[in-house]
Amino acid sequence: MTRLRPQRLHMRTSNLVTHISHPTQHLPHSSRQASGLVNITVARRRYPSPPAPARASQPSRRLRCACRAQLPEQPQASAQPASKNPLEQLRVTTDPRRRSELLQQLDTCWSEWEELYQPTPAEECLAQELGVDRSTVMLAAVQNPGLSSLDAPSQVLPSIRALLSGGLSAQDAWFLASKRHQLLEEPAALSRWLDFLRVYGMKPRDCQNFLLRSQPALLYGTTLYQAGTVVSFLKGLGLNDDLLAARVLCVWPELLARDVEGQLRPVTAFLMSLGLEVAGVARVVVMWPEVLLRSVEGQLAPWVNYLRGLGCSTAQVADVICLCPHLLGFKPEEVFGGVLRALEAAGIGREDVRQMVTSSVAFLIAPSASTGVQAALDCLERHGFAKEQIREMVLSRPELLAVKAHDLERSLRFVYDTVGGDNGTVLACPLLLTKPLGQCLGPRYSFVQKQGLAHKYVGEDGSTFEFYKMLVAEDDQWCASLGLSINEYQGFKLVWDEEYSLKLHQEAANEFQAELKKLGIYEGS
Predict the structure, then answer these.
(1) Does 178 reside within a domain?
(2) To which H or E segment does residue 390 belong?
(3) Contacts of residue 447, Cβ cutoff 8 Å, sequence gap at least 6
């Protein structure tokens, strides 16, 4: 019997039938009928193996190898496939264009995809610890890519428990987590800052506001020692815990990262050099904490020098800072340039401005000063005052330019209609226009007429009314000069104010009605 060659037993399985049956041709006929060999052959033929692929030629094999070398490395086969749920894709997608495409897919099938939504462990932890509805957590995760990727046991859970132990309610903790999820990335730092804030007297709501406005870089890059020196410095100005927390630190948390000696103390020293006391500096800081973030040489000193160039004294500069410290946040040309240009167009030059500011700076710092000054000048021109007359009035009473245009209109109408005066009356006493009508002129003139005391204000010539004498004093002093009770005048003024307010409402309604009639849409009688 011919022996089988060993190497044939190592042939591919697809050729097994050929290599086993072929040697039997050399066996005797009886041996070729052996059932074992026949069974093997039949069994292999019933389940044929797929044909082996043809061996590629050498050039094509090299080409495929080169292509594989240029392709990026493929992920492991065990990695989870990307979700097809647009909601789940939104919670990890930051590209605006891609997010827009995903939202368009959800326009008509939001509810279907929401039912299939699979929350991450971080979302599950937030819902469980804070008692928030899962759909609410899902919306927060969709709106804030990165929230769902936080690690639940090492980041989310300890951070939430730190917030709750800091006195925040579950609702406040959820609001903070949904708006500033970056704070949850470092639970240890968050816990240390909460302890620090509570030691310095911050209430839970103040802690929440502080964390909402704080940048993660501040919390992770500023030491508590540095923050403590800043708090001690601010308390040295006389700020109590409530003001310091609610009006300063919660508004500008960045202050805690400032250097006391190199940045904060120079600012307070500069303000004191203008004549402000320590209490005055504290009021400025409370009104506008950002002043401590400003540079003395780059911003504060040039601003002060600009006002001095307009003719303001050091005391006036200090008053401006105390009244409107927020103006320090703008370039002086942006604040005062419009006012100066409006005055110059009315024939009031820089030398006139220097004279005006010696009496009052109200026209420079009034809200929307540029627009207000221009509106006041236009109002006076509409009522027939010449430019020279306007210049004469504002040089004597520059504060009238700080009065709103509609208040000027009402005062002028009162002078014309009730007093019976004219522009000459106003030129003789510009004080008539420096305050709103209901504050002084209206009630005092009406009270004098009702009490029959008008003769006390008749001039020496017997024909003029001395308005200045009636308007210049305070209410109590004025009533004492007449020998009347302040309570009696205040009761009269209250009634006068009510009647005048009703009159203004009726005039406004009539004007609105007239406008509707012009448009042809008035349906009343």
Answers:
(1) no
(2) helix 387-396
(3) 489, 492, 493, 496
Domain assignment of residue 186, yes or no? no
pLDDT tens by residue, 162-183: 999 999 999 999 999 999 999 9
Domains in the chain, number: 2
CB burial string 474-507: b at 16+ within 10 A, e below: eeeebbeeeeeeeeebeebbeebeeebeeeeeee
pLDDT value for 525 = 61
Amino acid letter, 363: F
Full-model pTM: 0.70
The number of CA neighbours under 13 Å toward the Cβ of 356 is 26
How much is the average pLDDT of 120-132? 95
Q: For the chain, what's the residue count?
A: 525
Residue range 104-115: mean pLDDT, rounded: 91
Q: Show the domain range for 18.
A: 6-44
Residue 471 lies in a domain: yes
For the CA atoms of 430, 435, 436, 441, the dihedral, rounded to the nearest 10 degrees, stands at -70
156 in any annotated domain: no
Beta strands (DSSP E) in 68-202 are none
Q: What is the pLDDT of residues 62-71, one digit of tens each?
A: 434 333 334 3
Distance, in Å, from the CA atom of 34 to the CA atom of 23, rounded to the nearest integer, reads 13
pLDDT given for residue 77 in this prediction: 33
* Alpha-carbon radius of gyration of the chain: 43
* CA within 13 Å, CB half, 260: 13
